[in-house]
Amino acid sequence: LELRESLGAAWNESQLFLRSGSSLQQEHLERLDLHRASVVIIPGADFELGGSELNDTRVVKTLLNLESHFKKRKPGTNVPCVVAELFDPRKVSIARRSISTSSEIIAGDRLISRLLSQSLRHSGVGPALLSLLTHREDTGLYLRGFPQFAGHSPRALINSFPKAVILGVVSMDGSEPIVQLNPDSEVILTEADRLIFLAPRYADCQPSAVPPMENPGAAELTLPPHPEPKQRRFLILGWSYKIPTLIAELLETSIGSFEITILSKIAKNDRQQALGHLEFTSRLTVRHVVGDYSLEQDLGKLNPHEFDHVLFLASGWLSNSEEADARTVMGLLLLRSLLEGHDNTPEVLTEVLDPDSAGVLGQTADVVFISPQLLSHLLAHVGLLPELNAVFDNLICSGGSEITLRMPADLGLDSNAITFAEVQAAAASRGCIGLGFYTAPYQASPRKLALNPDREQKRSLRVDDRIILLCSEGDGAGR
Predict the structure, then answer these.
(1) Bridge partners, residue 165, by sequence
(2) Exposure pattern of 196-213 as b/e (b: 16+ CB <10 Å)?
């Protein structure tokens, strides 16, 4: 009934089959006719199955059952690709060793933590990352090979694809994909390589008659550095098992220092024990405060307006997702009331577990992460194209190539009557890739994201509008 209501007109009883049983039982798996499947997806279930630890145990046991089932197959029988979701990234290696067939293991905590880390470090990039992961804004990531371009650099093809942006290249090293985002002019394509595109549809990843550039050359210019504050201050509200992974991701960054304050009802000793395996440096300090963020006397005494970012994390210690989201909504409403009257207010990032909760929040939060929905999108994308797991992993990890927002002046461009074609050319000359525009909220209008827009449409950008770039760390990312 839930699926039928969710799918609406897309519901088709002849295409969707539901079976009862347990993936932990061999005889139940044997009824699924797995040898005719293209892919087997094992999603995680946080609250429903007793929490993240029990979920990961279930997933690994299911992988072992699948391995045993596939070993019984007849010679020449098809073996599907297996895509599984774990919560704890430390158990990924165990999961991979549990099955010998083609598989992709998605670490849910690491994915969400990396998204949060990037959003905390680079104000405004959250919507762009969410769009790429969920195919929002009528655009998404696609892989496509073009043997005729072997011997050329991906940078030589910048003008050869009028409806798509080349983000990088995927090469195969044995069975493992090697991803290079924002490759320099020294990277040369082979016939087996596949290009990574940002495009509305797969069909739009088609070359035009424009030939590749003969010699794109190295980047001649550099982006000016961002004015970096001495220390960024983050306020985390709520305790979640994602926090150790989030802090570990911040520790991986090479630029900037961070002061983190965590307000939660969980005892300090329990939190410090959960963070005990991390090796802290002088660049990152953590302050633990015991209290309830839904109470004004607890949240107000921290002066939330003095922080650069405020992050609400869905509490993992509650009994269900509805209760966790209800607490988040209460805390968010209280935070907004405390921020009223202050000129400089922090960017508010919010994690919720139910898509309906995002609708209730409206414009209360600057960026909303619906964790289960994000992971479901990723499972679907990786199920259709396994190599996308490595692409997404490289796109949101610390270091390497990262998405950043820049002013037109940083690219030597006038903000009046600017085109995306001019952005692409200016970005390429600085060793970056132009992705689109980010329009800040203005009066009653919400912010707007335009990824891979029309090349020749002229735009006039206001003072708070930004250009979205994909840059390598040495070219200005992470600053």
Answers:
(1) 198
(2) bbbbbeeebbebeeeebb
CA 465 to mean position of chain CA atoms: 22
DSSP code string of 350-401:
EEES-HHHHHHHTTSSSEEEEHHHHHHHHHHHHHH-TTHHHHHHHHHSSSSE
In single-letter form, the type of residue at position 238 comes to: G
pLDDT mean over 306-314 = 93
DSSP string of 58-110?
HHHHHHHHHHHHHHTSPTT----EEEEEES-GGGHHHHHHT--SSEEEEEHHH
* Euclidean distance between CA atoms 242 and 240, whole angstroms: 5
Residues 6+ apart with CB under 8 A from 321: 46, 47, 314, 353, 354, 372
Neighbours of 340 (CB within 10 A): 8
Amino acid at 24: L
Torsion angle, CA of 468/470/472/478, rounded to 10 degrees? 40
Q: How confident is the model at residue 475 (pLDDT cuts 50, 70, 90)?
A: low
Residues 106-138: tens digit of each pLDDT: 998 889 999 999 888 888 888 888 888 877 667
Q: Which strand (E) or helix (H) includes residue 131?
A: helix 126-134
Residue-wise pLDDT for 319-349, tens only, equals 677 888 888 999 999 999 999 989 888 989 9
Going by C-alpha positions, the residue among 201, 198, 200, 166 that lies closest to residue 183 is 166
